[in-house]
């Protein structure tokens, strides 16, 4: 048997050390409790809208937290631990979901849809890879996953720690909870707050979950509702000889101008310069014999998701989420490109942003698709844009319109020089100098590597956006001046508003649309639309939903009287 001996006085030393250590342990424990409570509080009151992300939003008392504490106190033993772990994990997942809402609101002007929006994350990673490099994209994904896991673990640990505190001090916790509930009721009745304009009594999490439940239910119904809308098509069976009769013999070129939104014409910092480009362009084209009519369309998307806008305008259906887009491209819905092809136009899709397989492009029924690798460009990238708008139009002209007897042509051309992040914009050069694009290597902006623009402040991003839009518009105007003839009909339309970092909050989804032609009979066919004259639509110009354009266009330029959209 071992004998343990103690020197005289060691018990006293140990006891004294323990007494001295207690204050330090109390400080550590108290600090942990404060941190845990702050973390749970922040998770319960963090807003899901980017504009609401202010310090005042966190100075609130959430009823959900008080009810959670009451439930923990009502339980006993192991049930408390299980309930705390489940509540903490759920709160962490809820925080991650709110973070997704914040991100979507900051970039796309809308909330995140937990049913339909997961496929949008792939294009977001691709965009980051192009603008900031593959390493940055991989790092961002890894950081996002690690952050989501960390949030769930931290909220779970915080809830578990607070449960232990409540168990140790149950009597004090019950009295404090009663006071807090009474205080919450008083603040809720009066609507008062510690921060002006922000009520102190919060039910934000309950309202958020209620809204999410409705959003999920609506999203689950959306597929069937969209299928019903797609099936109702007044033009699907129209013979080719009855389609687009007023445009026979014309080359119709439909161009989408990236991020060309109403803000470019309405914001006081943009309107003078962009408006001057359009007004000068109106005068220049008038001198060349052309006229134009302009208005606005309301896009189904903002800040990104260009393909949703393209699909909406061409199909005549409101395509505002990825599920609708995938349903559409797998269907036989009649589109504008189908109409031109059925009426014996040669249809071409010029797609400078497509750098990989594009199976969904088969839906549009082009006779020929020319993606980025098919355009023969030998110059540098300009930020996100694979090539300048001027090169795209010059190559289109050379390859598709240069032959005198090329036959009627219908082309859809998304132009990407005005796509964010607007860190590199080329300058317009003579059309005879474009060549294979090597000339653009001489431009400083072309030599600069891709960048995300994250290091640029809002004023710089806004100035870059304005210059990019001016470049795209000047390119289109110059193209019509240089290559336009009696048979050219140009339609150019913005696909969506730019991101909120440019527009600010509540900018809406309106985008300008313009039709240009030298043949006055073309514009006479749309006189009933009451669009404004010239390239710049005024603030009171008509506004249509983008999905209305297909039917109105087919009606205006066909022989059918009284058809939908007339």
UniProtKB/TrEMBL annotation:
Keywords: Membrane, Transmembrane, Transmembrane helix. Gene3D superfamilies: Alkaline Phosphatase, subunit A (3.40.720.10). It comes from the Bacteria. Residues 295-500 form the Sulfatase N-terminal domain. It holds the Pfam family Sulfatase. The chain crosses the membrane at residues 27-45, 57-75, 82-104, 135-160, 172-195. This is Sulfatase N-terminal domain-containing protein. The keyword Ubl conjugation does not apply. InterPro entries: Alkaline_phosphatase_core_sf, Sulfatase_N. The keyword Ribonucleoprotein does not apply.
